[in-house]
Design goal:
9 helices, disordered N terminus, about 180 residues
Length: about 180
């Protein structure tokens, strides 16, 4: 693969990392998340943010609890993932930390979305990460307003494409 000139530490690598959580072992998740991050975000923080998101997805997809997530990430990546406060900047590490903080502080998707927006700043990234992870966690109440789902854009890479991709991932990597 040809590498693209790395960005400083934007959130793209973390936003691509969630599907890596479908892989079988935490070690494989760490390795593949790092490699996919290095393609465009080859910085220590870019790699760590992608690994954190992928490991959180893996934790839930393999049956881990929401309460157990902080200890799981602490054991594999160290601390500092669950204490975000304030406006979110463009750095991927900020987005991952904000998303993980909001994720463990709420239990419904509606409350989670509101918390992500309330941070201010790069909240679309934070919400995408947090809601993607909440979708992997069976403990989360799926209570987003119907209008958000009904009116979701459905072009070539819209709602239908995403639903099909989800089905393919779950079929290829059963949990």
């Amino acid at each position: 693969l040809t590498r693209i000139k790395p960005h400083s530490d934007k959130s793209g690598a973390a936003m691509r990392a969630l599907p890596v959580g479908f892989l079988n072992t935490p070690e494989t998740v760490l390795e593949v998340a790092a490699e996919q991050a290095r393609l465009t975000h080859d910085t220590p923080d870019g790699v760590r943010s992608a690994q954190a998101v992928a490991l959180a997805a893996h934790h839930f997809l393999k049956g881990g609890s929401l309460l157990g997530l902080p200890a799981s990430l602490q054991a594999l990546l160290g601390g500092g993932w669950f204490n975000w406060r304030g406006k979110v900047g463009p750095a991927g590490l900020d987005s991952a930390r904000a998303a993980l903080t909001a994720l463990v502080e709420h239990r419904s998707m509606a409350a989670l979305l509101k918390a992500c927006v309330n941070y201010s700043g790069d909240v679309d990234t934070v919400a995408a990460l947090a809601l993607g992870l909440a979708g992997c966690c069976p403990e989360y109440e799926r209570n987003l307003p119907e209008v958000l789902l009904r009116d979701l854009e459905d072009g070539p890479y819209g709602k239908g494409y995403l639903q099909e991709l989800d089905l393919k991932l779950r079929k290829r990597f059963p949990c």
